[in-house]
Amino acid sequence: MALTGRTALLAAVGSLPIGIWEPSWTGILAVNAPLALACACDFALAAPVRSLRLTRAGDTSVRLGDPADVTLTVTNPGRRPLRAQIRDAWPPSTWRRGMEHDASRHRVTIPPGERRRVTTRLLPTRRGDRKADRVTVRSFGPLGLFTRQGTHDVPWTVRVLPPFHSRKHLPSKLARLRELDGRTSVLTRGEGTEFDSLREYVPGDDTRSIDWRATARQSAVAVRTWRPERDRHILLVLDTGRTSAGRVGDAPRLDASMDAALLLGALASRAGDRVDLLAYDRRVRALVQGRTAGEVLPALVNAMAPLEPELIETDARGLTATALHTAPRRSLVVLLTSLEAAPVEEGLLPVLARLTKRHTVVVASVADPAIEAMAASRGTTDAIYDAASAAQATAERHRTAEKLTRHGVTVVDATPSELAPALADAYLSLKAAGRL
Fold first, then answer.
1. What region holds the DUF58 domain (predicted)?
2. Tens digit of pLDDT for each residue in 47-61?
């Protein structure tokens, strides 16, 4: 039963059950006066909170999956020692589940006129900018009976960058690039479009590479070696529309597309090509242009960090017009988008000729590995229906890819873990064939 009025008050301050003992007001004051005095003293001796000075330092960027440390410096300018609990609040996506309570709370004791540092370790679970929320300080008195509490705004932003998992493939792709470039003992014969040097003919060389004039001037047959052309323009186009929001595994398709774009951007910049980035749905979401080889990868990572899929249909005409404006001269345009039939047939195909007329076009798409697993399932009626649905979806993607191929487009369709190396291989093949 709820207690109200004088009975509730007596129950709160008395030491015996209600009905057994009802002290007089004089008795109440006599018993609780020392306690009240102790509480008042404890409150008075608790260090004030509003006069504290707080500043931040630490990491401003971190790759997704890596920890970031942000240091909070608390200065006590008052004349009383500060005994406090500090809560450094950040958005929920800054922590893994269950981490926030332990990682964001700190106990400090700061003598008058001194300062202390506490470090909050963040482990973000999503890309983008993570901004610090308020810092709450709860100051305790010497007895711990009363506290003072207040909040401070101490701004700080940590940018969570794409993880770039595909960087593990970069050494092998660079080795292949060096082979194409003629910088190793393994020469690519008869490929590329830029003359490199002459050497003696060996059995197996392409006879079309024989330099007859040089052969006439010496006793041995001379052949020309080639290297891929440099200083070509690569435009990476990220479709950030509705289809990029579909989740494959535990991440959106956009994340796998960005990972593939980063590997290709790093590889192409090492090959001496110029790399630009365009992210578009119905307007430009990110644009990177005119960066040097050493600046390309940091610029791409920084531009991709805040990108999120937009739940709107991509304007294919606007995307094409913007890509043509961004790349006015012949370039390799790599469009990372979906192979769903409706968006491609109704949006991309009608305007694709404008791109292929001027540029070499590659369309890269993220395939769902769950579809492959469904196609192989058997044993139950439900599994057979799943397999039939998966086979139908796969056949539809193949038909869409064939339509793009008939327009002169190179199509790369692979699962998230395989898309980045497959796209890099397609780039190297085009470079070796002199099609850039």
1. 198-374
2. 899 999 999 999 999
- By DSSP bridging, strand 410-414 and strand 360-366 are parallel
Assigned token pair, 263: 């590997």
Q: Please give the structure tokens belonging to residue 436.
A: 């850039």
Question: Which residues fall within 8 angstroms of residue 108, CB to CB, at 6 or more apart?
Answer: 74, 82, 83, 84, 86, 116, 118
Full DSSP string of 182-233: T-SS---TT-SSEEEEEEE--TTS-GGGB-HHHHHTSSS-EEEEEE---S-E
Chain centroid offset of residue 162 CA: 3
From 363, 366, 354, select the one nearest 403 (Cα to Cα).
363
Six-digit token string for 200? 């003696």
Contact 258, 265 (CB under 8 A): no
Hey, what amino acid is at 137?
V
Enter the tokens of residue 248: 């494959």
| 350 Cα distance to chain centroid | 32
Residue 166 has pLDDT above 90, yes or no: yes
Residues 395, 397, 400, CA angle at the centre, nearest 5°?
Answer: 110
The residues that bridge with 427 in the sheet, in sequence order, are none
> What confidence tens digit (pLDDT) does each residue in 304-344 have?
999 999 999 999 999 999 999 999 999 999 999 999 999 99
pLDDT band, residue 141 (cuts 50/70/90): confident
